[in-house]
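Quick one: structure tokens for this chain, please?
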Amino acid sequence: MAIADVAAYAHLSDADVEALGDELDAIRSDIEESLGERDAAYIRRTIKFQRSLDVVSRVIIACTQSKGGWLLGTTLLALAKSVENMEIGHNVGHGQWDWMNDPEIHSSTWEWDMVGVSSQWRYSHNYRHHVFSNIVGVDDDLGFGVIRMTRDEPWEPVNLLQPLRNLLLACVFEWGIGLHGIHSARDRLVSGDGEFARAKGAFIRKIARQSLKDYVLIPAISRSRWRRTLTANATANLLRNVWAYVVIFCGHFPDGALTFTADVLEDETRAHWYLRQMLGAANFKAGPLLAFASGNLCYQIEHHLFPSLPSNRYPQIAGRVRELCDKYDVPYTTGSLVRQYLQVLRTIHTLALPDRVTLTYPTPNGAASCPEEEAEGVSFDPRPAGSVDAPLAFG
């Protein structure tokens, strides 16, 4: 399904789409030109806050004896892990702070606090997901390989299990991301020359380091209270995983977020890429605290338009993007977090059933079939020259 095939957007001529793209380019240029010490101070302050919160939470867990103390410490630890995962790790990995030229806060050096290897994630996420967003058979994030999220994917009996798969994915989301990265590496690298073997080795070593830290070394420091620390670490990881899953799914799969087939890539221009990002993503309403805890991914539309612009600027960008949506009569999909997630659950449970049973249900993610190999004809590659691990050049 090409952009022009979406009936609700047929009013846009090619000239309109290009004009929209020019105005989005202007937003990007304005933000890039205004980046400075205030933005650098924000990310440094965020890192200090996250690390301080991590220490404080662990002290509370280890030093208090009440269940209330354990609950408070574990909740704060889960928040610290969520901030590290999304507002820091995810956004630094996108190259949002590379302009600072700080070797410690750079996409090429930051290793986040989860089992996935950052360099492998940068390829599977920055390239395969952000360049080919919501394209069936190309975007690996479309259901993460275990959940059918569009009728364009043929139904199979195993899909009956996807409500349970969805619950499992939420609980082990960091492992899903890690496996996602290694699967993308398998598709990209040639196993015979040892590259894929090295990628697997890096993944195994990262799993070992994370497991040793969370489930052996830190509990051991607590000595006789190691069980208390161990359960707190496991619970905090679980809460972080579920929260990251909810944020990601609410930004990609509620009603109004469209999916596409590979023919959309034929002659796709920069402006049409922008439009596809706007049609394929969704926001959810959040105050400052909720936005911070989600890595500002409550602004998923803005993030997909400008993935390498600093996340602290998304609220500012959102106002301008929404004005453009009104100007060009393009939907700006948003809603409360609860509403968006309930829509996601409805889609997951409905598409678990055969189409002949649910044909009357108008899922928002339908698309016309198109062979996966057609993606090889992509004529617009927005990557910068050089490594495919590099962040997107224009966002």
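The two ends are 24 Å apart (CA to CA).
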